[in-house]
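Subgroup meeting minutes
Present: P.N., E.W., G.H.
Scribe: E.W.

1. P.N. recapped why we're keeping a running log of single-chain structure predictions: easier to compare across weeks, and new members can see raw inputs and outputs side by side.
2. G.H. added today's entry (85 aa).
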Amino acid sequence: ASEVTFELDAVGDDVRLTVTQRRLGEDPATWANVAGGWHTHLAILEDRLLGRVPAPFFTAFEPIEAAYLERFVPTAGAVREGGEP
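Output recorded in log:
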């Protein structure tokens, strides 16, 4: 099972939230999915805190997950779209 920690640190008049998820295994697709999920959830939280209406979750999530997948596995985009490397 993975493990998630949340840390809050004072930074001047602001607060920094650090989210760390460990024990994700060895699959880069899992890393991209988890990173994209946290990225999207935190962006929605930021929008809500600033009084903005956030984009629907999956509208925001899909391109973010794809960007993380490309970062973690540079040829993943070609594999996903074409089915073969």
